[in-house]
Design a protein that fits this description.
- The relative contact order is 0.14.
- The radius of gyration is 22 Å and the shape is globular.
- It is about 25% helix and about 30% strand.
- Strands 1-2-3-4-5-14-6 form a seven-stranded mixed β-sheet.
- The protein has helices at about 15-25, 30-35, 90-105, 165-175, 185-195, 245-255, 275, 300-305, 350-355, 360-365, 375-385; strands at about 5, 45-50, 55-65, 70-85, 110-115, 130, 130-140, 155-160, 210, 215-220, 230-240, 260-265, 285-290, 295, 315-320, 320-330, 330-335, 345, 370.
- The model has no long low-confidence stretch (mean pLDDT about 95).
């Protein structure tokens, strides 16, 4: 009997969860299945079925992503990609991901993206690394804010979930428009996320929220009492600041929370100014830097026309034999098919990694993932595609 690729039915949601949990090494409780159900549209999922058993799976979320310049375009956030150990080496992962891509294309979403559980899989499917995840740590006893920065205009206070969801969603929207790679959230999305975060996460507490008029921070605590010498760990899971004052005020408060030994995070952007605000700049340590979002541009003309460019120029890029003229500047851009000689030659994955502006042509050329017509073409490409602020993504999907 041949293996069928099809969407799951609503009644098959528990089977989808069990397959996903088995593939990634955990088990969903019935309560977790119920809590997550509303965020997953089965019409956006595809599964391979062999003799009534799920043997491969992939899906996507309907998202909107910020591009350089602040424009927002629809995006399919690819997720839950896995294949049963019993059905390896049959091309099933590619078949289900291709089916999800076809669905994303049919919905008119010009970009697909994902977080990769393994780094060697997705380049051959057209995905290129576009953001990075930075893990950081601050030993609180080693530093403090510079004295002249302690008094910052704007009050920070605790807010309670889920009543604060509309307010935090409004702040998030202002923040994410300033950073390529971040995704949109409605008040309903924020409320759903807050409900999920209201549960403990292993040894970490339910989430707590600090709010400023122009920003907020979300964190969890892990208790370490150390026989009366407390050094709790505070893990910042999200910080959205739409203004510099909000950023400073939130960090001032986080650094002043009692009984904390270490502040850790996976959400601080590579260009975050926090070190320069500290008396001891080295107190903020980068403990890991990993790949973050991988992007696959599904509609090249639409996606590259929607962003702005650092300088005014015209660059011809060839990707897997197709040539594109990308023309633009700080006010906007355009993209169309071309026949002229290319300035840069790469794969579709290489082209995709340029969209958010965080991967430069010179890095791809040096890594033998791109060829340039000349050193001048490489230098022009760096100036053209780069963004003033590196792309970043705090959502994980």
């Amino acid at each position: 009997m041949s293996i069928e690729i099809r969407p799951p039915t609503d009644d098959e949601w528990p089977d989808v969860c069990r397959f996903d949990g088995r593939s990634f090494g955990f088990t969903y409780t019935p309560e977790e299945m119920d809590a997550k159900r509303e965020a997953h549209d089965m019409a956006r999922f595809r599964m391979a079925v062999d003799d009534d058993a799920i043997v491969a799976l992939a899906g996507s979320y309907a998202l909107e992503v910020t591009l350089p310049g602040g424009a927002s375009v629809p995006m399919g956030g690819v997720t839950w990609v896995s294949t049963a150990a019993t059905h390896r080496r049959r091309g099933l992962m590619r078949r289900v991901v291709d089916a999800v891509h076809d669905d994303i294309d049919a919905r008119g979403e010009p970009v697909a993206s994902l977080f990769a559980s393994e780094g060697g899989i997705y380049e051959r499917l057209g995905y290129g690394i576009s953001t990075h995840v930075r893990s950081t740590s601050i030993e609180v006893h080693t530093t403090r804010l510079r004295p002249e920065l302690v008094s910052v205009a704007g009050e920070v206070r605790y807010v309670e979930a889920p009543d604060a969801a509309p307010r935090l969603a409004e702040i998030w929207e202002r923040y994410r428009r300033r950073r390529a790679g971040e995704t949109a959230r409605s008040a309903q999305d924020m409320s759903f996320l807050m409900r999920l975060r209201d549960q403990p996460d292993d040894a970490l507490s339910p989430a707590l929220y600090l709010c400023h008029d122009d920003g907020y921070a979300c964190y969890r605590l892990e208790s370490h009492w150390n026989d009366g010498h407390p050094r709790h760990r505070l893990h910042v899971i999200e910080l959205a600041a739409a203004t510099p004052d909000a950023h400073l005020a939130l960090w001032r408060t986080l650094l002043e929370i009692d009984l904390i030994g270490t502040i850790t995070s996976n959400c601080i952007a590579p260009d975050d100014p926090l070190p320069y605000m500290l008396v001891n700049q080295r107190s903020l340590r980068t403990t890991q830097l990993n790949d973050g979002v991988w992007v696959n541009v599904r509609d090249v003309a639409m996606a590259f026309a929607a962003r702005t460019y650092r300088v005014t120029d015209r660059i011809v890029v060839e990707a897997d034999g197709r040539r594109w003229t990308i023309e633009g500047g700080p006010e906007g851009g355009s993209c169309r098919r071309a026949r002229t000689k290319p300035d840069l030659v790469t794969t579709h994955a290489g082209l995709s990694s340029l969209l958010y502006g965080g991967t430069l042509p010179s890095a791809l050329v040096a890594g033998r993932r791109m060829e340039a017509r000349s050193d001048d073409a490489t230098a022009r490409g760096d100036l053209f595609f780069a963004t003033g602020r590196p792309p970043h993504c705090q959502d994980h999907y």
